[in-house]
Amino acid sequence: MIQFLRKQWFFVGIALMVILAVYFPALGPIVKKYKILNGGIFLAFLITGLSLDTKTVFEQLHNLRVLVASLVSSLILIPIITFFLANLAFSDAPDLIIGSVIIAVAPVTVASGTVMTAVAMGNVPLSLFICMLSNFVALLTIPFLLKILLQFGQTIDLPVYSILSSLALTVLAPTILGQLLRPRLKDIIFPYKKAFSIFSQCVVLLIIFNAVSASMSEILRSGLVIFSVFGFMIILRALILLMNFTISKLIGLDEASTSAFTIHTSQKTLTVSYLVWAGYFAADFPMAMIPPIAFHLTQMFMDTLLAHHFRKKALEKKPL
Predict the structure, then answer these.
(1) Calpha distance 109→94 (Å, rounded)
(2) For the domain 31-317, what is the CATH code?
(3) Are residues 100 and 78 in contact, defined by beta-carbon separation less than 8 angstroms?
(4) Which of 305, 285, 303 is nearest to 102 (CA)?
(5) CA distances to 171, 172, 215, 268, 295 from 71, in Å
(6) How far is 317 from 255, CA to CA, in rounded Å?
(7) Which of 104, 142, 180, 228 has the most CB atoms less than 10 A away?
């Protein structure tokens, strides 16, 4: 049992967070009042800046086809595909359409995408390159994509530049600060690399708790709708992975780079999605955080299986 908990602690943590949110929703306002989550998010992106090896990442810059393909897929194709499919699936539920678009326009994950790539024995520097590129460019694309896509019969007054500045302060500033501190601290923080990864995942757990507790009444009222959301996300996730695998083959990537591109370009961060939802949609569309949570959970399970599939293939081709 102890060995199981050590290996699967994150998934056990997800279950515990959902249970806590269901039975103790009053804890949510406390987390918000004392800005516990805000502090955790800031530290998570600070750790990201401290952890990223800029030199190895920028060695990937000569590969322009990866640069263009990752940006086009992550920040243009995935949002457009998600928007049209969500409108077909949830035509009478604007909260679910908005939530699906919010997660689709988000940048790729920071920690889990690279971890999954490492598990798959993929090209980790390429994974980091995709991560940095997507997160920086997404600061510019998120407000404008939301403004363009979320016009479905009603006008949403979306403060584009306010979102841009908010994301820059919350995401970009701590990441840059971490990069500036990295030369002096990298040797000191190296032994705590695993602990930093665990901390970042704990922030994700706290986001899940906060989002579920804040929308608990709406989730209970949704009833069987929650199952349709998960069903939709499973189909969407499979389509996105297949699309990025196909793109990686079309641009001629090797096996290690294919696994990195397929996994990391397909992933989306729940942290940025939460910031957008909490800041601009939570009051009018309280259920809009359900699709991002469902996408994230689906992403974790499906990508874990895919990473082990890539790893098995890599080991089979590895010379004895």
Answers:
(1) 25
(2) 1.20.1530.20
(3) no
(4) 285
(5) 18, 18, 32, 13, 20
(6) 10
(7) 104
What SS3 state is found at 224? coil
Distance of CA 242 to the CA centre of its chain: 18
Q: What are the mean pLDDT values of the chain's consecutive 10-residue runs (320 residues total)?
A: 76 86 82 78 83 69 83 96 96 92 89 76 82 82 88 54 70 84 86 81 79 70 82 96 96 92 92 84 87 86 85 76
CB atoms within 10 A of CB 278: 18
CA distances from 146 to 36, 45, 150 (A): 27, 23, 6
Nearest Cα to Cα of residue 156 among 103, 214, 80, 101: 101
Amino acid 110: pLDDT: 66
Amino acid of residue 229: V
Residue in the structure block whose two tokens are 């706290």: 206
Tracing tokens 């006008």 back to the chain, one arrives at 155
User: What does DSSP assign to residue 150?
Assistant: -
Residues in contact with 6: Cβ distance below 8 Å, sequence separation at least 6, in sequence order:
none
Q: Residue 150 is encoded by which pair of tokens?
A: 């979320």
pTM: 0.76
Residue 130's nearest CA partner among 108, 163, 105 is: 108
CA distance 270 to 274: 6
> Count of residues for the chain?
320
- Rounded Cα distance, 79 and 309, in Å: 27
Q: 């359409």: which residue's tokens?
A: 97
Q: List C-alpha distances in Å: 23 to 15, 26, 36, 212, 221.
A: 12, 9, 20, 11, 16
Distance CA 28, CA 262 (A): 35
pLDDT at 56: 67
Give how far Cα 156 sits from Cα of 7, 143, 185, 215, 306, Å: 44, 12, 44, 21, 38
Q: How far apart are CA 156 and CA 159, in angstroms?
A: 9
**Strands, E assignment, the chain:** none
Which amino acid would we find at residue 285? F
- DSSP state, residue 91: T
Domain boundaries, the chain: 31-317
